[in-house]
Structures are given as C-alpha cells and as structure tokens.
Design goal:
Blueprint lengths: L2 E4 L4 H11 L5 E4 L16 H16 L3 E10 L6 E2 L12 H11 L7 E11 L4 E12 L15 E3 L11 H7 L1 H14 L1
Parallel strand pairs: 1-2, 1-3
Antiparallel strand pairs: 3-4, 3-5, 5-6, 6-7
Helix pairs in contact: 4-5
Length: 192
C-alpha cells in the first residue's frame, strides 16, 4: 500500500492524522483531494458505524484504501453525552466554540467532571475491513485553557496531566490521545 485516503475534510483532523501516519511512509491523501466525493451523513447510532460508513464510501469512489474516524466525547454526568453527537452538539450549525459553551453550561452545577474521548478508526481496502478503538480518560474543566488543538481540547484534561489537550504540545497530545491510540493500533496492524 503506497497511498491512503483519509475520509475527512476537517483540516485539523487531517493534519493530526497525517502526523500520526508518518511512520508508515505512505502518501496520505484526504477527501479534499477528491472533489467528486460527496459529504457523508453521519447518521449511524455508533462511532464505529459512522467511521465504517465514511471509509466504505470513500473507498468505493476512489478505489484506494481508506481510513476514517469518528470521535465522541463521553461525559459521565451527562450519561455519556454528547457521544456520537459531539461534532453537532450545539445544533446543526455547531462550531467548536458553541459546542464547548453548551457543554460547560450543561455541566455548570456538576461536581462529577469525569469524561473520556473515544475514537473508532475504520480501514477499508479491497482486501479487508478493520476497525480500531482508542480511549483516553480525563475530566472536563470549568473553563477553557490553551490555544492549541481543536474541538473540546480546551476543556479536556487527560488523566495524569495538569494541562488540557489545547495546552499540551501536539507531539505529546498525539502520543496519548484517543485518536493517537486508535491510529497506533492501525499502524501496528499494518506493520504486522
């Protein structure tokens, strides 16, 4: 395999995943490189379902091995919400900021700040379909900290660290993050 298509148009996610995939030494493309690709509606009830749907579609159109992920922030005090709806938590035209503000508002009276990020990465090629899961536990802070990262990173502090994902250097974040852990399993699978 010398090429891989990321089933994403999110520049933050593409950059992060490309960094994580560097050890494979393959050309990493994205949905941005294929204007004919349509937006895939993430309407499955699970992260794995959405990741597989996107990877299967991109593979069917491009004919190239495809990799997709779906990520959810699961907050204990909110019974696992926003979960599969993390990207559109604050509504149809959600932004990173509006999602974070809704989360902080819904948790303002909560003492339990436990949360976890969960990513499922799906890989589809002519030969096989595989999925890999990565989880990182942590807590939701009461205010935003840091300028890096994206999404809920400014309010998520991973277990064992005193900084949010938005404050940590990207190399450390990539090593310990949910997406990093899922991609590491994928890289190990391909290397085996």
């Amino acid at each position: 395999m010398d090429k891989l298509v990321l089933a994403s148009r999110n520049p933050n996610k593409i950059e992060e995943m490309a960094q994580l995939l560097k050890p494979l030494g393959i050309e990493v493309l994205s949905a941005l490189d294929f204007p004919e690709l349509e937006e895939v509606e993430e309407d499955k009830p699970t992260l794995e379902g959405n990741a597989l749907k996107k990877a299967e579609y991109v593979h069917s159109v491009t004919g190239l091995p495809s990799l997709s992920d779906d990520t959810g922030l699961e907050v204990e005090a909110l019974d696992g919400a926003p979960g599969v709806y993390s990207a559109r938590y604050s509504g149809e035209n959600a932004t990173y900021q509006s999602n974070v503000e809704k989360l902080l508002s819904e948790m303002k009276n909560s003492e339990n700040r436990a949360a976890r990020f969960r990513t499922v990465v799906a890989f589809v090629s002519d030969k096989e379909t595989q999925s890999f899961e990565g989880i990182v536990n942590g807590e939701i802070l009461k205010e935003q900290k840091g300028e890096g990262g994206f999404g809920y990173d400014p309010v998520f502090q991973p277990e064992g660290y005193y900084q949010t994902f938005a404050e940590l250097p990207s190399q450390i974040k990539n090593d310990i993050s949910h997406r990093g852990r899922a991609i590491q399993k994928f890289v190990a699978f391909l290397s085996a």
